[in-house]
């Protein structure tokens, strides 16, 4: 015999009703009363030409965010292309441009916002960016309530592509360049993607011209292995560090330009002018020493250089300036971003002596030393947020199992992140690409907004870089991921909310990690964000590459398997569509991020590949075989 629950008393029923009413009121105040059943009518519009895409559609406001809108836009774009293809099917040649259809079917990343009209002179934002959901980012914000936006209105949502341009898949090795006499240890593409810098165990660093695929300069002066390097954000100088703790600062030949022109060979006129100036200085010194004037005419007029001597001076590398202070080898270098200091960016260096030094590049002196780590500092990164006094924020990772955050203006320790159980080998910022290439336009070449080194002031360049940085971090703040010998990665919350204020209650956020990213079976070698910040890739000694979500707190996406030995280095193409990995197995692999399988296999190196970087639409790599290889479509 079935039993039925007892009928609640009148008092019990009244208490239940009061409790339910209290819960409903709390949800209503938070804007979460009926989000799942609330639908909105959305019309998608392109930011490029202003045309609408497809019909107006009804979507659930609470569960539709950037990811869902991105899937809808890509699907509607495919349907539109198929419709156009059917209309002109008879006029098209089936064999024409066979590979373009495959590329057009790939999903592209988009950002979404709602344009809102505000009163003239108002400081209110003119757009509402959509990230988590339409309900949270549009309907429930204070500005939308002032403008009387509701679920009954047709929301015209604008979508804008996030990829700067499409990089062609790499297929072949176009050049093999010799020059280094020892294994190549480190490589780095220049901000304009026109030069490639390598360091090696032969005590030299070399500059390579990517466009002509030829060697450019040999930077000589180090007396021990050159371990690391860094580029000035405006490409006017570069820095290299060696095992003796010595840093060399190299200035370009032409400070009013960038790329191949700035670092290229001197002209014959420049060489002759320098020779005449040197001869005049020598004659003036001799005259002042002897105390008698020479009556034999201008001494510089008799200077005639031999062709061999003139050729050597024309192709000579620029002289380097030495920065001394560290007592052990240099592990990492980082220049101050252009949007914080475009005129004379400072240089940060980390060392095995447990310290980080910040150098003034204008007078080549040490501004201050950061000495809170108790062991070797493996990495230093200069963040993009402005910090307390506008000097930026420094991130350092060390063998003492901590990541420390410093104020770039004063050197004050802001906080220490100590979740790792072993050495912290690597870390990456979601803004790394913008900080490195922020002053250059990848689509058109040259500086952004039509600026130039010769005619634009540093303040104009700095303002343009700051505008680009703020636009990038508007939808996703600067976040940090660190990797360790303990086989794990940690996804940290944004450490500063815009301009930091003093104290924990101001601009500093809680230091507890948002996610512990596990899965690798051996120590982490390298981690990097995609240029758009949506994806994170990590490489490990276990021979695998793992993908994580950069927008969902490091959520695991997939494992990329194909290498048969340790993976040393990763690099993203500037459109965030392609990922290349370099391995101990002497190969590099380009990965298909739709199927998570190998897209292109790039064998060719004779030994381990230590470094790889995407340089524009080409790949440059180097390793134990002492050769630089350039790969292209």
From TrEMBL:
Keyword vocabulary terms for this entry: Nucleus, Repeat, WD repeat
Residue ranges, annotated region (Disordered): 78-109, 281-308
Annotated Low complexity bias: 281-298
Pfam families: WD40
PROSITE patterns for this protein: WD_REPEATS_1 (PS00678), WD_REPEATS_2 (PS50082), WD_REPEATS_REGION (PS50294)
Localization, UniProt: Nucleus, Nucleolus
Compositionally skewed regions (Basic residues) per UniProt: 78-87
Compositionally biased intervals (Acidic residues): 91-107
GO biological process: ribosomal large subunit assembly
WD repeats: 177-218, 219-251, 323-369, 370-416, 517-549, 560-595, 602-633
InterPro entries documented for this protein: WD40/YVTN_repeat-like_dom_sf (IPR015943), WD40_G-protein_beta-like (IPR001632), WD40_PAC1 (IPR020472), WD40_repeat_CS (IPR019775), WD40_repeat_dom_sf (IPR036322), WD40_rpt (IPR001680)
Cellular component GO terms held in the UniProt record: nucleolus
Alphabetized PANTHER family for the sequence: NOTCHLESS PROTEIN HOMOLOG 1 (PTHR19848:SF0), WD40 REPEAT PROTEIN (PTHR19848)
This protein's name: WD40 repeat-like protein
Species for this entry: Jaminaea rosea
Lineage: Eukaryota, Fungi, Dikarya, Basidiomycota, Ustilaginomycotina
């Amino acid at each position: 015999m079935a039993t039925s629950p007892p009928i609640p008393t009148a008092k019990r029923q009244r208490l239940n009703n009061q409790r339910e009413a209290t819960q409903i009121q709390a949800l209503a105040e938070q804007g979460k009363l009926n989000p799942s059943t609330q639908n909105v009518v959305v019309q998608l519009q392109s930011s490029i030409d202003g045309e609408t895409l497809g019909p107006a559609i009804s979507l659930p406001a609470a569960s539709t965010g950037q990811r869902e809108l991105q899937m809808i836009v890509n699907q509607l774009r495919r349907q539109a292309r198929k419709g156009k293809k059917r209309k002109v099917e008879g006029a098209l040649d089936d064999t024409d441009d066979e590979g373009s259809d495959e590329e057009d079917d790939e999903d592209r990343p988009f950002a979404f916002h709602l344009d809102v009209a505000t009163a003239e002179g108002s400081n209110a934002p003119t757009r509402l960016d959509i990230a988590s959901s339409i309900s949270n980012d549009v309907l429930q914000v204070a500005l939308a309530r002032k403008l009387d936006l509701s679920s009954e209105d047709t929301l015209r949502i604008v979508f804008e592509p996030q990829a700067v341009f499409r990089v062609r898949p790499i297929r072949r090795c176009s050049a093999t360049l010799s020059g280094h006499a020892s294994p190549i240890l480190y490589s780095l593409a220049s901000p304009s993607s026109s030069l490639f810098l390598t360091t090696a165990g032969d005590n030299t660093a070399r500059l390579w011209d990517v466009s002509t695929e030829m060697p450019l300069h040999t930077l000589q002066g180090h007396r021990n292995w050159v371990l690391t390097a860094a580029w000035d954000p405006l490409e006017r100088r570069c820095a290299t560090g060696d095992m003796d703790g010595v840093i060399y600062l190299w200035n370009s030949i032409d400070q009013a330009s960038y790329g191949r022109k700035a670092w290229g060979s001197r002209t014959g006129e420049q060489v002759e002018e320098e020779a005449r100036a040197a001869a005049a200085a020598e004659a003036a010194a001799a005259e002042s020493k002897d105390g008698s004037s020479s009556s034999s005419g201008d001494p510089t007029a008799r200077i005639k250089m031999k062709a061999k001597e003139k050729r050597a001076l024309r192709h000579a590398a620029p002289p380097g300036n030495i920065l001394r202070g560290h007592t052990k080898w240099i592990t990492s270098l980082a220049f101050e971003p252009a949007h914080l200091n475009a005129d004379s960016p400072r240089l940060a260096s980390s060392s095995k002596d447990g310290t980080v030094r910040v150098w003034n590049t204008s007078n080549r002196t040490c501004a201050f030393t950061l000495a809170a780590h108790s062991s070797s500092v493996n990495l230093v990164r200069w963040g993009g947020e402005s910090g307390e006094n506008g000097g930026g924020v420094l991130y350092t990772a060390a063998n003492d199992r901590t990541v420390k955050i410093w104020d770039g203006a004063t050197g004050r320790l802001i906080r220490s992140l100590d979740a790792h159980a072993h050495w912290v080998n690597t870390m990456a910022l979601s803004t790394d690409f913008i900080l490195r290439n922020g002053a250059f336009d990848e689509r058109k070449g040259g500086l952004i907004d039509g600026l130039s080194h010769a005619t634009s002031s540093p303040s104009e360049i700095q303002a343009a870089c700051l505008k680009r940085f703020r636009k990038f971090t508007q939808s996703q703040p600067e976040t940090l991921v660190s990797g360790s010998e303990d086989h794990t990665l940690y996804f940290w919350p944004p450490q500063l909310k815009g301009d930091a204020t003093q104290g924990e209650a101001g601009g500093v956020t809680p230091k507890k990690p948002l996610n512990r990213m596990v899965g690798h079976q051996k120590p982490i070698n390298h981690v990097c964000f995609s240029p758009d910040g949506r994806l994170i890739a990590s490489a490990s000694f276990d021979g695998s590459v793992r993908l994580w979500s950069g927008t969902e707190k490091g959520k695991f996406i997939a494992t990329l398997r194909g290498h048969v030995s340790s993976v040393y280095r990763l690099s993203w193409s500037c459109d965030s569509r392609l990922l290349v990995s370099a391995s101990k197995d002497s190969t590099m692999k380009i990965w298909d991020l739709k199927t998570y399988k190998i897209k292109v296999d790039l064998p060719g190196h004779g030994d381990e590949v230590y470094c790889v970087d995407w340089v524009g639409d080409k790949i440059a790599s180097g390793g134990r075989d002492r050769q630089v290889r350039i790969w292209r479509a």
